[in-house]
Design goal:
- This protein is of the alpha+beta class.
- The chain has a single domain, classed as 2-Layer Sandwich (Alpha-Beta Plaits), CATH 3.30.70.240.
- The protein has two helices and seven strands.
- A hairpin with a 6-residue loop joins strand 4 and strand 5.
- The longest helix has 14 residues.
Length: 98
């Protein structure tokens, strides 16, 4: 099983994902595909995400039982910690005004 969550994605990309996956909530797509098809779907996300961001998670033979990829600007970024993939939060950006 795989899950893709998109934020601020263009309608064109959402429509393309909806052709392959089931959109169970706004911006949340689920499906079950081979690694090869999953890779092709992710390439579509990479090419079409523009100013948005996305994360894809799927079942994998790792210690955690899953793996994930991200693209775009987001406070949550993957970080490898002794073979485990964890999520690191980037600090809030300060506005230029004090």
């Amino acid at each position: 099983m795989m899950v893709i969550v998109v934020n601020n994605a263009p309608p064109r990309l959402r429509g393309r994902l909806a052709a392959w996956l089931l959109e169970i909530r706004a911006g949340v797509f689920v499906g079950h595909y081979s690694a090869r098809t999953r890779s092709r779907i992710w390439k579509q996300v990479e090419c079409g995400i523009e100013q948005g961001d996305a994360v894809m998670c799927w079942k994998a033979p790792t210690d955690q039982g899953f793996d994930f990829l991200t693209i775009g600007q987001n406070r949550r970024m993957p970080k490898d910690f002794d073979g485990l993939k964890l999520v690191q939060f980037a600090p809030w950006e300060k506005s230029g005004k004090n």
